[in-house]
Amino acid sequence: MSTGTVMDAPPAAAPRARRVRLLHGGVSAPVAWTLRAASVLVPLAAWTALSASGAMDPAFLPSPAAVWSAGAEMAASGELWSDLAASLGRIGLGFVLAVLVSVPLGFTMGALPAAQALLEPMIGLLRYLPASAFIPLLIIWLGIGEASKVALLVLGVVFFNTLMTADAVRQVPRRLLEVSATLGAGRARVAARVVFPYALPGMIDAMRVNAAAAWNFVVVAELIAATSGLGYRITRAQRFLQTDKIFAILVVIGLIGLTIDVTLRLVRVRVGRWSA
């Protein structure tokens, strides 16, 4: 009887092993690229079929060909490039300023419990305030020029990036800090040589998330008496029901955002190869 019991045990363990493989298994490179292509081509085919069927008025859902033509027309006239440059300048400046403020602040909060106790309640409260709610104050304080637009982007990113950076710093294993102290490293050396390199991949992940947030805020920022920018061009096209131009600009925003995300992902892989 005992022999039969031992021989019956492996089949009972096999389903658990299969479940683990389902949760943590990978896919081959050809399958992965096929799925990536399908994620783009299937919605595009559905969009093409829907617009070709005549079920939707082209004024509300233009065809992909019409969107391409509108984008090519804006590119040929130069307005697309000037608007893109204006938006990239605002997003770049606002995002860089937010990172320059949030990374040191978040690093300090994550490394020092006293700083966390002092700053986290206020920053945690401020992150729930919609950045767009500050528009009237920003106009009063900074006017309707570029400063108020950049400040809105900073407000939309800085609080979230601060807390996410602090979370990344707090992920440093305590044993690693204890070993460093045992070897004679001081606090400043541990922070620079141990904590920062370990937390850097997590910080870059936080930047990836909040770079997308910066793109979301650019349309709102360019509602403040703007005369250029992709958000401005969207609102102008909306006035004349030029949905083909709106779709074309949205595609451009998506492609630029994807480029930024992939770039940060590659940087993250390079600096955090040890954590893969």
Descriptors:
276 residues, 0% strand
Give the structure's gist in a few sentences.
By secondary structure, the protein is mainly α. The protein is 82% helix and 0% strand. The relative contact order is 0.11.
CA-atom Rg in angstroms? 25 Å
Low-confidence stretches: 1-7
The protein's oligomeric status is single chain
| Number of alpha- plus pi-helical segments | 11
Range of strand content: under 5%
Note the overall shape: globular
User: Helix/strand-derived class?
Assistant: mainly alpha
Total number of strands: 0
**Largest pleated sheet:** none
Helical residues, percent: over 70%
Mean pLDDT: 86
Order of helices and strands, N to C? HHHHHHHHHHH
Cα(first) to Cα(last) distance is: 47 Å
Write the layout of secondary structure elements.
Layout: H1 2-24, H2 29-53, H3 64-77, H4 79-111, H5 113-126, H6 135-142, H7 146-170, H8 174-182, H9 187-221, H10 230-239, H11 243-271
Helix pairs in contact: 3-11, 4-5, 4-7, 4-9, 4-10, 5-7, 6-7, 7-9, 8-9, 9-10, 9-11, 10-11
